[in-house]
Write a structure and sequence with these properties.
The chain is α+β, with helices and mostly antiparallel strands and 77 residues long. It contains two helices and two strands. Strand 1 and strand 2 form a beta hairpin.
Amino acid sequence: MSLFSSILVIGIVIMTAVVALVSQRRRPLEEDDNDPDYHTLRSDYQSGMGGGSARTWKVPKDPQEYARFFVPRNKLK
């Protein structure tokens, strides 16, 4: 293995570690402090070719209320 390839491999490993560290420490788009009864979930997709999307959802912390989202409206009665 040449010196150039060794430096290239070490550089890739360091860049991967930096990207992982930054993405773990990223703050959410919205804080949960505004509404203590809900979680804010974030979905971030980047295609790598200039496309992608970032979305957030607020879901209730109560498991029973969260489960009601998956039941059809006519079955709640």
